[in-house]
């Protein structure tokens, strides 16, 4: 029996129509972008309190800007991997394969590898590297260069730009859209996330409460693994294309 049918075989569901996918740092790991909590990950190299909180930015804006300038430059040298590409195929073919079918892609990642892979609709709930947020006029501008030299905001001219990243203690973006998508979906799939950070880590429980089938694709079991109907372990570049092929070619 192929793994793809296990959710169906257990009667957990019929063919899903609306699918919500949540991705985390693990989907970009094989593109050469560090994850946060794996061995040698970002939060082993840097203290969250120094670089990823509004308090850190108020205390030492140069340290924070330098950290994100470095990551913003690095991300632009990386390429999408087969996991990103497989999700693009699903986004494009699922509505054709299943009348009324739809895929909502929510990511915790701040890189643009989903978009460079070809994804057209991505909800970046934790913000984006390639966006700058003006704390004077609240405008957001596409931005691919450094911010440490305090450039002027393209909208208001004030040198008040910060990384458009949701820091710890700040409210994630587009939560209403995410909840609405979950409330209309049949299947929730989590890819490459440790389930360590809320509210994203709580989506699987909400999905279960809403009666969705739930599937986890990850290198190792996440903190929320017990809430998933099914967990498949492996590298995203292998298990995500296999899952998508299983769904589209079934
Ligand atoms: N394929 C699949 N999964 C992988 C791979 C891979 N090649 N490499 C690592 N993983 C898995 C790890 O097993 C781990 O469960 O990806 C997960 C990465 O977890 P984290 O580093 O905690 O990243 P993430 O869950 O995305 O972090 C959530 O925390 O620091 C904040 O805002 C930041 O969005 C981030 C949030």
UniProtKB/TrEMBL annotation:
Q: Which residue intervals define the domain Deacetylase sirtuin-type in the entry?
A: 1-250
Q: Which SUPFAM superfamilies match?
A: DHS-like NAD/FAD-binding domain (SSF52467)
Among InterPro entries, the record links this protein to: DHS-like_NAD/FAD-binding_dom, NAD-dep_sirtuin_deacylases, Sirtuin, Sirtuin_cat_small_dom_sf, Sirtuin_class_III, Ssirtuin_cat_dom
Amino acids binding NAD(+): 24-43, 108-111, 192-194, 218-220, 236
Output the Pfam families linked to this UniProt entry: SIR2
Task: Tell me where in or outside the cell this protein is found.
Answer: Cytoplasm
Keyword match GTP-binding: no
Gene3D superfamilies of this UniProt entry?
A: SIR2/SIRT2 'Small Domain (3.30.1600.10), TPP-binding domain (3.40.50.1220)
Q: Which family does it belong to?
A: Belongs to the sirtuin family. Class III subfamily.
Q: What does this protein do?
A: NAD-dependent lysine deacetylase and desuccinylase that specifically removes acetyl and succinyl groups on target proteins. Modulates the activities of several proteins which are inactive in their acylated form.
Protein name from the UniProt record: NAD-dependent protein deacylase
> Which organism encodes this protein?
Novosphingobium nitrogenifigens DSM 19370
Taxonomically, what lineage is the organism? Bacteria, Pseudomonadati, Pseudomonadota, Alphaproteobacteria, Sphingomonadales
